Amino acid sequence: MPEDPSPGLTPLTVSLASYNIHRCFGTDGRYAPERTAEVIEALDADIIGLQEVDMRLLVDGRAQLDFLADMLACNAVPGPNIKGRRGKFGNALLSRWPVREVRRPDLTVRHYEPRGAILAEVDVAGQPLRVVVTHLGLNAAERRLQVRHLLAALEEGGDDMPTVIMGDFNEWRPTRGALRAIDRRYGVSLMPRTFPSRLPLLPLDRVWAWPGAGLKRLSVYATPLSRITSDHLPLRAEVAWEPHEVPGGWRRRAAITKV
Q: Which fold has domain 12-243?
């Protein structure tokens, strides 16, 4: 029997979800953050990437993201794309695991709506996992530039860490478009239909896992409640890697720092 290349290290197993919450406004026009929290809780994911989080809107005196983090007992990482006197709006990350390092690359293309991403290193039982949350633009040329900037930001972080990329990519073309560049680097993504939530036709929301063998399951969470809570349906992914499946094996890290 071959010797274990990484003795004493356990597999990395984690569940994740990606969800465009549409500012907590449902398809019925109701502003119902409690409903959004109920859907996210039902996903039972360790790490959740959110888009269209409106921190300008309050829930019982708390910003929308703070409310969701409190309700779900998660660490919250904001990734606002829009910042103004009324507050912030954009991406967010919720995690049951400690978040160690965060970068927020700006993906804004001139003349278009501000866009960005969250690049976070999450400590999963002592093992590092790089998680990317983003929301790309509506214009095809805009998305191509945004993907180029996102891949450049990922290259800065090295390639020895298991990675999950998730978000609303606003790309519905199965064989064309900006996402081919991500497919070439991280493997071809699955394309379950998530939009519009009442009758999903378009695969706007995507999840990549690298190394690709780590993606064990990807599913759309479609229930009567999730169909009215947002105009997007959430995606839920399960990933797992053995230590020898990641280049360089698991890195041993120092004590966790607070973000």
A: Deoxyribonuclease I; Chain A (3.60.10)
Task: Provide the token pair at 80.
Answer: 């606002």
d(CA 218, CA 94): 19
Alpha helices for the chain (secondary structure H): 33-43, 64-72, 140-156, 180-186, 226-229
Q: Are 141 and 116 spatial neighbours (Cβ–Cβ below 8 Å)?
A: no
Give dist(CA 180, CA 254) in Å, integer.
36
Per-residue pLDDT, 138: 96
Amino acid symbol at 19: Y
Query: How remote is the C-alpha of 107 from its chain's centroid?
Result: 15
Please state, rounded to an integer, the average pLDDT across all residues of the chain: 90
Domain boundaries, the chain: 12-243
252: DSSP letter: P
Tokens standing for residue 39: 């859907």
Segment 172-183 mean pLDDT: 85
**Lookup: tokens for 246:** 């990641």
Residues near 121 by beta carbon (within 8 Å), at least 6 away in sequence: 99, 100, 101, 102, 128, 129, 130, 131, 161
Q: DSSP for 64-129?
A: HHHHHHHHHT-EEEEEEEEEETTEEEEEEEEESS-EEEEE--B---TTS---BEEEEEEEETTEEE
Q: What are phi and psi for residue 35, nearest 5 degrees? A: -65, -40
Mean per-residue pLDDT, 83-111? 92
